[in-house]
Design a protein that fits this description.
globular, 75% helix, 0% strand, mainly alpha, 267 residues
Protein backbone atom coordinates (compact mmCIF):
# COMPACT_ATOMS: atom_id res chain seq x y z
CA UNK A 1 0.00 0.00 0.00
CA UNK A 2 1.14 3.53 -0.75
CA UNK A 3 0.75 5.82 2.26
CA UNK A 4 0.78 8.87 0.00
CA UNK A 5 -2.08 7.51 -2.11
CA UNK A 6 -3.98 6.49 1.02
CA UNK A 7 -3.75 9.96 2.51
CA UNK A 8 -4.62 11.64 -0.79
CA UNK A 9 -7.72 9.49 -1.26
CA UNK A 10 -8.72 9.98 2.36
CA UNK A 11 -8.40 13.73 1.94
CA UNK A 12 -10.59 13.68 -1.17
CA UNK A 13 -13.35 11.77 0.57
CA UNK A 14 -13.08 13.28 4.05
CA UNK A 15 -16.24 15.39 3.92
CA UNK A 16 -18.38 12.54 2.67
CA UNK A 17 -16.96 10.28 5.36
CA UNK A 18 -17.63 12.82 8.11
CA UNK A 19 -21.18 13.28 6.82
CA UNK A 20 -21.87 9.55 6.91
CA UNK A 21 -20.33 9.18 10.37
CA UNK A 22 -22.31 12.17 11.65
CA UNK A 23 -25.60 10.91 10.22
CA UNK A 24 -25.17 7.39 11.61
CA UNK A 25 -24.20 8.86 15.00
CA UNK A 26 -27.42 10.90 15.08
CA UNK A 27 -29.41 7.88 13.90
CA UNK A 28 -28.02 5.87 16.82
CA UNK A 29 -28.89 8.67 19.25
CA UNK A 30 -32.44 8.84 17.90
CA UNK A 31 -32.79 5.06 18.12
CA UNK A 32 -31.97 4.97 21.82
CA UNK A 33 -34.16 7.99 22.54
CA UNK A 34 -37.16 5.95 21.35
CA UNK A 35 -36.46 3.03 23.67
CA UNK A 36 -38.30 4.34 26.78
CA UNK A 37 -41.58 4.67 24.89
CA UNK A 38 -41.22 1.17 23.42
CA UNK A 39 -40.16 -0.29 26.75
CA UNK A 40 -43.46 0.71 28.33
CA UNK A 41 -45.48 -0.98 25.57
CA UNK A 42 -46.20 -4.52 26.76
CA UNK A 43 -47.74 -5.54 23.44
CA UNK A 44 -44.71 -4.87 21.23
CA UNK A 45 -42.80 -8.03 22.24
CA UNK A 46 -45.85 -10.25 21.70
CA UNK A 47 -46.46 -8.61 18.33
CA UNK A 48 -42.90 -9.28 17.17
CA UNK A 49 -42.92 -12.89 18.35
CA UNK A 50 -46.20 -13.55 16.52
CA UNK A 51 -44.96 -12.18 13.20
CA UNK A 52 -44.43 -14.58 10.26
CA UNK A 53 -40.95 -16.06 10.01
CA UNK A 54 -40.38 -14.41 6.63
CA UNK A 55 -41.00 -10.99 8.16
CA UNK A 56 -38.72 -11.80 11.07
CA UNK A 57 -36.04 -12.92 8.62
CA UNK A 58 -36.23 -9.61 6.79
CA UNK A 59 -35.40 -7.78 10.00
CA UNK A 60 -33.11 -10.30 11.65
CA UNK A 61 -35.55 -11.29 14.39
CA UNK A 62 -35.88 -15.00 13.67
CA UNK A 63 -34.72 -17.69 16.05
CA UNK A 64 -35.27 -17.38 19.78
CA UNK A 65 -38.20 -15.43 21.17
CA UNK A 66 -37.59 -11.70 21.05
CA UNK A 67 -36.92 -10.05 24.43
CA UNK A 68 -36.96 -6.25 24.56
CA UNK A 69 -33.72 -4.88 26.00
CA UNK A 70 -31.71 -1.78 25.05
CA UNK A 71 -29.40 -4.01 22.99
CA UNK A 72 -32.17 -5.88 21.18
CA UNK A 73 -33.99 -2.62 20.51
CA UNK A 74 -30.82 -1.13 19.02
CA UNK A 75 -30.47 -4.21 16.84
CA UNK A 76 -34.11 -4.06 15.75
CA UNK A 77 -34.12 -0.36 14.88
CA UNK A 78 -30.56 0.23 13.65
CA UNK A 79 -28.13 -2.66 13.56
CA UNK A 80 -30.24 -4.99 11.43
CA UNK A 81 -30.34 -2.32 8.71
CA UNK A 82 -26.77 -1.13 9.27
CA UNK A 83 -25.20 -3.37 6.57
CA UNK A 84 -27.80 -2.19 4.05
CA UNK A 85 -27.30 1.50 4.85
CA UNK A 86 -23.51 1.36 4.98
CA UNK A 87 -23.54 -1.12 2.10
CA UNK A 88 -24.81 1.71 -0.10
CA UNK A 89 -21.79 3.76 0.97
CA UNK A 90 -19.55 0.75 0.33
CA UNK A 91 -20.82 0.33 -3.22
CA UNK A 92 -20.62 4.02 -4.10
CA UNK A 93 -17.09 4.23 -2.68
CA UNK A 94 -15.75 1.05 -4.26
CA UNK A 95 -16.59 2.01 -7.84
CA UNK A 96 -14.13 4.89 -7.54
CA UNK A 97 -11.54 3.13 -9.68
CA UNK A 98 -14.10 2.82 -12.50
CA UNK A 99 -14.96 6.52 -12.17
CA UNK A 100 -11.30 7.43 -12.59
CA UNK A 101 -11.04 5.28 -15.71
CA UNK A 102 -14.13 6.95 -17.18
CA UNK A 103 -12.80 10.43 -16.42
CA UNK A 104 -9.31 9.61 -17.69
CA UNK A 105 -7.65 10.59 -14.41
CA UNK A 106 -6.34 7.07 -13.78
CA UNK A 107 -3.99 7.38 -16.76
CA UNK A 108 -2.22 10.24 -15.00
CA UNK A 109 -1.84 8.16 -11.86
CA UNK A 110 -0.53 5.13 -13.75
CA UNK A 111 2.05 7.36 -15.41
CA UNK A 112 3.64 7.77 -11.98
CA UNK A 113 6.16 5.22 -10.64
CA UNK A 114 3.56 3.28 -8.65
CA UNK A 115 2.41 -0.29 -9.12
CA UNK A 116 -1.22 -0.98 -9.96
CA UNK A 117 -1.92 -3.23 -7.01
CA UNK A 118 -0.77 -0.47 -4.64
CA UNK A 119 -3.33 1.88 -6.16
CA UNK A 120 -6.12 -0.62 -5.56
CA UNK A 121 -4.98 -1.51 -2.05
CA UNK A 122 -4.66 2.16 -1.09
CA UNK A 123 -8.16 2.96 -2.31
CA UNK A 124 -9.67 -0.04 -0.56
CA UNK A 125 -7.79 0.77 2.65
CA UNK A 126 -9.49 4.17 2.69
CA UNK A 127 -12.88 2.49 2.65
CA UNK A 128 -11.86 0.05 5.41
CA UNK A 129 -10.77 3.01 7.52
CA UNK A 130 -14.03 4.82 6.73
CA UNK A 131 -16.15 1.78 7.59
CA UNK A 132 -14.38 1.36 10.92
CA UNK A 133 -14.91 5.06 11.68
CA UNK A 134 -18.63 4.81 10.83
CA UNK A 135 -18.98 1.68 12.97
CA UNK A 136 -17.27 3.49 15.84
CA UNK A 137 -19.62 6.46 15.40
CA UNK A 138 -22.56 4.03 15.55
CA UNK A 139 -21.32 2.48 18.77
CA UNK A 140 -20.60 5.86 20.37
CA UNK A 141 -24.04 7.09 19.36
CA UNK A 142 -25.70 4.08 21.00
CA UNK A 143 -23.64 4.52 24.17
CA UNK A 144 -24.32 8.25 24.42
CA UNK A 145 -27.98 7.72 23.57
CA UNK A 146 -28.39 5.09 26.28
CA UNK A 147 -26.73 7.39 28.81
CA UNK A 148 -29.16 10.17 27.86
CA UNK A 149 -32.14 7.95 28.73
CA UNK A 150 -30.36 6.60 31.82
CA UNK A 151 -30.08 3.06 30.53
CA UNK A 152 -27.00 0.86 30.41
CA UNK A 153 -25.99 -1.20 27.39
CA UNK A 154 -23.61 -4.09 26.93
CA UNK A 155 -20.86 -2.41 24.93
CA UNK A 156 -19.08 -5.68 24.15
CA UNK A 157 -22.22 -7.27 22.69
CA UNK A 158 -23.01 -4.23 20.55
CA UNK A 159 -19.38 -4.19 19.38
CA UNK A 160 -19.67 -7.83 18.30
CA UNK A 161 -22.79 -7.08 16.27
CA UNK A 162 -21.10 -4.12 14.60
CA UNK A 163 -18.00 -6.21 13.89
CA UNK A 164 -20.04 -8.81 12.04
CA UNK A 165 -21.99 -6.08 10.24
CA UNK A 166 -18.68 -4.47 9.28
CA UNK A 167 -17.43 -7.71 7.77
CA UNK A 168 -20.62 -8.02 5.72
CA UNK A 169 -20.14 -4.48 4.41
CA UNK A 170 -16.53 -5.29 3.51
CA UNK A 171 -17.83 -8.22 1.46
CA UNK A 172 -20.00 -5.90 -0.62
CA UNK A 173 -17.12 -3.44 -0.96
CA UNK A 174 -14.76 -6.18 -2.18
CA UNK A 175 -17.30 -7.54 -4.65
CA UNK A 176 -18.04 -4.04 -5.96
CA UNK A 177 -14.32 -3.43 -6.40
CA UNK A 178 -14.13 -6.68 -8.35
CA UNK A 179 -16.99 -5.57 -10.61
CA UNK A 180 -15.32 -2.19 -11.08
CA UNK A 181 -12.09 -3.80 -12.29
CA UNK A 182 -14.03 -6.03 -14.69
CA UNK A 183 -16.30 -3.41 -16.25
CA UNK A 184 -14.20 -0.25 -15.73
CA UNK A 185 -17.52 1.60 -16.01
CA UNK A 186 -19.21 3.04 -12.90
CA UNK A 187 -22.78 2.49 -14.09
CA UNK A 188 -22.30 -1.19 -14.90
CA UNK A 189 -20.34 -1.74 -11.69
CA UNK A 190 -23.02 0.03 -9.66
CA UNK A 191 -25.77 -2.00 -11.32
CA UNK A 192 -24.03 -5.33 -10.73
CA UNK A 193 -23.26 -4.56 -7.10
CA UNK A 194 -26.74 -3.16 -6.47
CA UNK A 195 -28.43 -6.23 -7.94
CA UNK A 196 -26.19 -8.48 -5.86
CA UNK A 197 -26.95 -6.71 -2.58
CA UNK A 198 -30.67 -6.29 -3.23
CA UNK A 199 -31.00 -9.84 -4.51
CA UNK A 200 -29.18 -11.22 -1.49
CA UNK A 201 -31.41 -9.27 0.89
CA UNK A 202 -34.64 -10.28 -0.85
CA UNK A 203 -33.58 -13.93 -1.11
CA UNK A 204 -33.08 -14.07 2.66
CA UNK A 205 -36.71 -13.37 3.52
CA UNK A 206 -38.49 -14.73 0.43
CA UNK A 207 -37.17 -18.29 0.70
CA UNK A 208 -38.80 -19.01 4.13
CA UNK A 209 -42.29 -18.50 2.66
CA UNK A 210 -41.66 -20.75 -0.36
CA UNK A 211 -41.45 -24.52 -0.67
CA UNK A 212 -39.29 -26.02 2.14
CA UNK A 213 -37.51 -28.16 -0.45
CA UNK A 214 -35.66 -25.07 -1.71
CA UNK A 215 -34.79 -23.71 1.73
CA UNK A 216 -31.14 -24.49 1.01
CA UNK A 217 -31.11 -21.57 -1.43
CA UNK A 218 -31.09 -19.27 1.55
CA UNK A 219 -27.48 -20.23 2.16
CA UNK A 220 -26.64 -18.25 -0.98
CA UNK A 221 -27.78 -15.03 0.67
CA UNK A 222 -25.03 -13.09 2.39
CA UNK A 223 -27.62 -11.61 4.75
CA UNK A 224 -28.64 -15.08 5.93
CA UNK A 225 -25.52 -15.33 8.10
CA UNK A 226 -26.03 -11.94 9.72
CA UNK A 227 -28.30 -12.44 12.75
CA UNK A 228 -27.83 -9.55 15.22
CA UNK A 229 -30.46 -10.83 17.66
CA UNK A 230 -28.65 -14.16 17.83
CA UNK A 231 -25.37 -12.42 18.62
CA UNK A 232 -27.07 -10.45 21.38
CA UNK A 233 -28.73 -13.56 22.83
CA UNK A 234 -25.51 -15.61 22.81
CA UNK A 235 -23.09 -12.73 23.45
CA UNK A 236 -20.79 -14.23 20.81
CA UNK A 237 -20.08 -14.06 17.10
CA UNK A 238 -21.43 -16.51 14.56
CA UNK A 239 -18.39 -18.52 13.51
CA UNK A 240 -19.94 -19.51 10.19
CA UNK A 241 -20.67 -15.87 9.36
CA UNK A 242 -17.09 -14.86 10.11
CA UNK A 243 -15.66 -17.60 7.89
CA UNK A 244 -18.07 -16.89 5.03
CA UNK A 245 -17.63 -13.11 5.11
CA UNK A 246 -13.86 -13.20 5.53
CA UNK A 247 -13.51 -15.82 2.80
CA UNK A 248 -15.69 -14.02 0.24
CA UNK A 249 -14.09 -10.64 0.97
CA UNK A 250 -10.52 -11.96 0.63
CA UNK A 251 -11.25 -13.94 -2.54
CA UNK A 252 -13.09 -11.02 -4.17
CA UNK A 253 -10.33 -8.57 -3.26
CA UNK A 254 -7.55 -10.81 -4.57
CA UNK A 255 -9.55 -11.40 -7.75
CA UNK A 256 -9.96 -7.63 -8.17
CA UNK A 257 -6.19 -7.14 -7.90
CA UNK A 258 -5.45 -9.91 -10.40
CA UNK A 259 -7.97 -8.54 -12.91
CA UNK A 260 -6.77 -4.95 -12.48
CA UNK A 261 -3.14 -5.97 -12.99
CA UNK A 262 -4.00 -7.34 -16.43
CA UNK A 263 -6.57 -4.85 -17.66
CA UNK A 264 -5.91 -2.45 -20.52
CA UNK A 265 -6.69 0.92 -18.94
CA UNK A 266 -5.92 3.05 -21.99
CA UNK A 267 -8.73 5.52 -22.83
Amino acid sequence: MSLRLFLNNLKLGRWGLLAWAGIIFLYALLTMSLYPSMKSDDDIVSLINEMPEAFKAAFGWEGADFILTPESFAAMELLVLWPVIIGIYAISSSIGIAREVERGTLDLLLAQPVQRYKILISKFAVFVFAAILIASASLIGLIVGSAMIQESVDIVTLSLVLLEALLLVLVFASLTLFFATIFLQPRKSLLAAGILMAGSYILNFVIPILDPSISWLRNLSLFYYYQPQEIISNASLNGTAIVVYAGVAVVAFIAAILVFQRRDIST
